[in-house]
Design brief:
A hairpin with a 5-residue loop joins strand 3 and strand 4. Helix content is about 50%, strand content about 10%. It is globular and about 50 Å long. The chain contains 8 helices and 4 strands; from the N terminus they run βαβαββαααααα. The chain folds into 2 domains: about 80 residues, 3-Layer(aba) Sandwich (Glutaredoxin), CATH 3.40.30; about 100 residues, Up-down Bundle (Glutathione S-transferase Yfyf (Class Pi), Chain A, domain 2), CATH 1.20.1050. A 4-stranded mixed beta sheet has the order 2-1-3-4, with helices on one face. It is an alpha+beta fold and about 200 residues long.
């Protein structure tokens, strides 16, 4: 059995969505925000969620890795292009771009104090983080021009990951109105029954 350690509003949203869309069972453990215990730190050295414990007993961090793993382990659900397929490179490109560039920029905004040793510099960190996140979103906005989905012109978990990040945007908790392609993309996804039901707990939109 897979065990997902998460909390509402976290990156666990995309991982929960992956399991639910794949129709696969998993155990969900809600991790409170207060100081984690030693048992949790043993599987998440930074004390962050989500963490996924695999049936073999090993645990992995990084939501992008978890989402990709679920898509690989349950190919029949068709949640991502499989290895050797034409769209695989594009899927990996967007998952790595969002998890390594966009996700960290948003974290720098919300947790600015982690990224400076100067107590008075938090606002400067936030301003730079907002500019960087908007630069990344602009790249995706351009990529969605003339197409419905991010990868191979069909739905994938990369779209779910974008939906989550777009509703973490610091200005209004939603994508900017001028990003018409991202707004259109997210509006379609929010009508998907599994994602709409999951949002009852996560409250992303």
């Amino acid at each position: 059995m897979y065990t997902l350690y998460s909390r509402p509003g976290s990156g666990g949203f995309a991982v929960e969505a992956a399991f639910r869309l794949a129709g696969q069972p998993f155990t969900l453990v809600n991790v409170p925000k207060q100081a984690p215990g030693d048992d949790f730190l043993a599987i998440s050295p930074l004390g962050q969620v989500p963490v996924l414990t695999l049936p073999c007993g090993r645990s992995i961090t990084e939501s992008g890795a978890m989402v990709t793993l679920v898509a690989e382990r349950f190919p029949e659900a068709e949640l991502a292009p499989q290895p050797q397929s034409p769209g695989r490179a594009e899927f990996l490109r967007w998952m790595f771009f969002m998890s390594s560039a966009l996700y960290p920029a948003l974290l720098r905004y919300f947790y600015a104090q982690r990224y400076t040793s100067d107590p008075g510099a938090a606002e400067t960190v936030q301003n730079a983080a907002l500019a960087e996140s908007d630069r990344c979103f602009a790249v995706i906005e351009n990529a969605l021009s003339g197409r419905q989905w991010l990868v191979d012109d069909r739905f994938s978990l990369a779209d779910v990951y974008l939906l989550m990040l777009a509703h973490w945007h610091p200005v209004g908790d939603r994508p900017r109105e001028e990003w018409t392609n991202i707004v259109r993309h997210c509006s379609a996804l929010k009508r998907q029954p599994v994602l709409a039901d999951l949002n009852e707990t996560h409250r992303l939109w």
